[in-house]
Amino acid sequence: xxxxxxxxxxxxxxxxxxxxxxxxxxxxxxxxxxxxxxxxxxxxxxxxxxxxxxxxxxxxxxxxxxxxxxxxxxxxxxxxxxxxxxxxxxxxxxxxxxxxxxxxxxxxxxxxxxxxxxxxxxxxxxxxxxxxxxxxxxxxxxxxxxxxxxxxxxxxxxxxxxxxxxxxxxxxxxxxxxxxxxxxxxxxxxxxxxxxxxxxxxxxxxxxxx
Length: 210
Known about the structure:
Elements: H1 2-7, E1 14-18, E2 21-24, H2 25-42, H3 48-65, H4 69-91, H5 107-131, H6 137-155, H7 161-178, H8 182-209
Helix pairs in contact: 2-3, 2-8, 3-4, 4-6, 5-6, 6-7, 7-8
């Protein structure tokens, strides 16, 4: 990772300053790509997945430079899930054997997803605490495990992914603000709003299909 950071050092130069903190060219680029990705997700367009891969690569470097190792490592999980999600949206099938479409989770699935996410949170926090020099291991771990859950649900077109993203985005605002990543914090505040709009857009799709 250090070699990648060294190679990306020109992009980590400040483009401007916001509230006393530098905003790098890499952060600006990652935000533009991430916004395009969310717009594509709301429209259930497969181009969202290659955009997600590009955004994750940029954010992995940005977060590693800020010592947010949980978030940095998460980006590589995102890339793996994005490749799977891309395939799911292009070739995946639902339980009925038909092409994958927007769907809802059963109550049992919702509880299972919530329990797995909450169980993984302290485990990842402990790992970050012991294996890295992160100064916010458990704060970093919570949106990390939540993001993995949201990405998996998004890949299978479960409408509940937007609820998960809304919670993750609100928590992430505080995390990034604590690191002085003000532009990214503002982006995640916008993501929280877009999560509500995404929920409404997908719910409308469900209503039409019913």
